[in-house]
Amino acid sequence: MRIKKNIATSEEGFLFNPGTGDSFSTNTIGNEILELLRNEKPLTVIIEVICSKYDVERDRFAKDLDDYLSLLKNYTILE
Q1: Which of 4, 10, 58, 66 could be joined to 14 by an S-S link, Cβ 3.0–4.6 Å?
Q2: How many angstroms separate the Cα of 63 from the Cα of each of 15, 30, 47?
Q3: What predicted TM-score, i.e. pTM, was given to this entire model?
Q4: How many CA atoms does the CB half-sphere of 65 hold within 13 Å?
Q5: What are phi and psi of 76, to 5 degrees?
């Protein structure tokens, strides 16, 4: 799963899709997930990184990650 190459992101969590003209903002964790996706990290690594950095249960985060990725797909952020 990868972010489309034409998607612009900022360190502050701002995303811009030039294909649709849509812009979005995300929180710190969402931004970290985007960076891991941009670096082509597999979902297992993303789950490990976030769960080790934040006090979150693995099962809970895996569900939240799935929901977040669904949103990114719906907004055509992911390939």
Answers
A1: 10
A2: 22, 14, 10
A3: 0.89
A4: 24
A5: 55, 40
From CA 59, how far away is CA 53, in angstroms rounded?
15
**Using CB atoms within 10 A of its CB, is residue 65 exposed (0-12), middle (13-18) or buried (19+)?**
middle
Q: Could you tell me the two tokens for 34? A: 């985007």
Token pair belonging to 58: 């693995």
Predicted confidence (pLDDT) per residue in 8-63, tens digit: 999 888 999 999 999 999 999 999 999 999 999 999 999 999 999 999 999 999 99
pLDDT at 79 over 90: no
DSSP string, 16-63: EETTTTEEEE--HHHHHHHHHHHTT--HHHHHHHHHHHTT--HHHHHH
Phi, psi of 22 (to 5 degrees): -80, 145
